[in-house]
Amino acid sequence: MLCFLAGCAKEKDPLEKIKDLEFTVLAEENIPEELKTVIEEKKGNAFKVTYQDNGFLYICIGYGEQVSGGYSITVNDLYLTENAMYVDTTLLGPDPSDTAVTKQNIPSYPYIVIKTEFIDKPVVFD
């Protein structure tokens, strides 16, 4: 009888969101110098990098070379599960009506740096 009751316990889903995480999107001047160097080396191609410093975790996502400027990146979600931290971002293209930006054909390298508290779990990029 005891074994039967123990088998009925509900297992936690390891992908279930435990909580949303607070974060800050950093301006370039607030990015640690060592991390700036890594970003500069990788920016030509899409990249995903994490960096830990002084109790903070920096999550960096780059979208590689784009044909023009005017791109932006939104953070759709940053949350904690039983086994990992999940981050989801979206690259938004330039406003098609802003021909001053889109017709210049000057490449850009959009990336985002998200600063959050350090939690000793892997980061999963959605």
Describe it for me?
By secondary structure, the protein is of the alpha+beta class. It contains 3 helices and 8 strands; from the N terminus they run αββαββββαββ. The protein has helices at 2-6, 33-42, 99-102; strands spanning 19-20, 24-25, 46-53, 56-63, 72-80, 85-92, 111-117, 123-125.
Q: Could you outline the blueprint of secondary structure elements for this entry?
A:
Elements: H1 2-6, E1 19-20, E2 24-25, H2 33-42, E3 46-53, E4 56-63, E5 72-80, E6 85-92, H3 99-102, E7 111-117, E8 123-125
Parallel strand pairs: 6-8
Antiparallel strand pairs: 1-5, 2-7, 3-4, 4-7, 5-6
Structure summary:
With 126 residues, the chain is of the alpha+beta class. The chain is 15% helix and 37% strand.
Can you give keywords for this protein?
126 residues; alpha+beta; 4-stranded mixed sheet
Strand segment count: 8
Instruction: Give the rounded overall mean pLDDT.
Output: 88
The helix fraction, in percent, is 10-25%
Strand content: 35-45%
The Cα radius of gyration reads 19 Å
First-residue to last-residue Cα separation: 44 Å
What form results from the Cα inertia axes? globular
